[in-house]
Amino acid sequence: MTKVTLGGKVWTFATNYCRLLIRVMKRIVTKLINRMLLNTVDSERMASDITLSHVRKKMFVGLGNPGMNGSRHSVGMTVVEALAKRLGVSDSWRTDRQVSGEIIVSEFQDTQLVLLRPKLLMNINGVSVAKAASKFSIEPEHILLIHDDLDKPLGKIAIKHGGSARGHNGVRSCVDCLQTDVMRRLRIGIGRPSGKTPVDRYVLGRFSAEERKVLSTVLDESVTTLLAQLKDNELQKSPPGGRRKSQRSEKKDSSTALDIDREHIQT
């Protein structure tokens, strides 16, 4: 009996270790893909579309998976679309191959506003964000990421002033590609799945009819919050924990494997 119990413990440990190893390898591969795609940026060509540098600029990004509008994981895209509609520019979306995404360039009061919907998978959304930031000369301090949040119930939203990705792969990709974590985020609560529903299946699924009723109010509140952020002329400063990646300690980098279980989706 003791041998069976011991063998079971060894098997459980080995299984968990292998799963952790696979996740670490996925993280490494994703970072390599980020770097490879960013190396394809044609700086001279990008510069040709840059407007005058003295114009105040901001960029709002709806994180998500292309072709999955309406899913919980792509609620950030739904919010940025609602913002475009409120601003009266919803018919202005155009595909920009240079930034691997769909964009709208608009004016709001004295600010040039770039709206972005990446056309890359969530795990490499940051490539699109970094390319757009380079093309339009927008500093990370003036970028706001809009994304889903499992830790907040549906109906709740919150502004986060930079800091860690908190397990969100789309945000992590942006941090990796921009080499900083100072970007503001609008976190849209989607809640956690009930019962034994896998998290990945839940976040990639569409909102139910009841949830869509709540979502309508959430979109209105989110757009109002974004407009308030747009009017905020204060330069985003690095918050506690928000800093350039090159300044992070080796100790924090070594803790990646310990934090990896906080990831909620691998797509």
TrEMBL record:
Annotated InterPro entries: Pept_tRNA_hydro (IPR001328), Pept_tRNA_hydro_CS (IPR018171), Pept_tRNA_hydro_sf (IPR036416)
A GO MF term: peptidyl-tRNA hydrolase activity
CDD domains the UniProt entry points to: PTH (cd00462)
Region (Disordered): 231-267
Enzyme Commission number, as recorded: 3.1.1.29
Composition bias, Basic and acidic residues: 247-267
PROSITE patterns, A to Z: PEPT_TRNA_HYDROL_2
Pfam families, alphabetized: Pept_tRNA_hydro
Keywords: Hydrolase, RNA-binding, tRNA-binding
Transmembrane portions of the chain: none
Family in the record: Belongs to the PTH family.
Record-given protein name: peptidyl-tRNA hydrolase
Organismal lineage: Eukaryota, Metazoa, Chordata, Craniata, Vertebrata
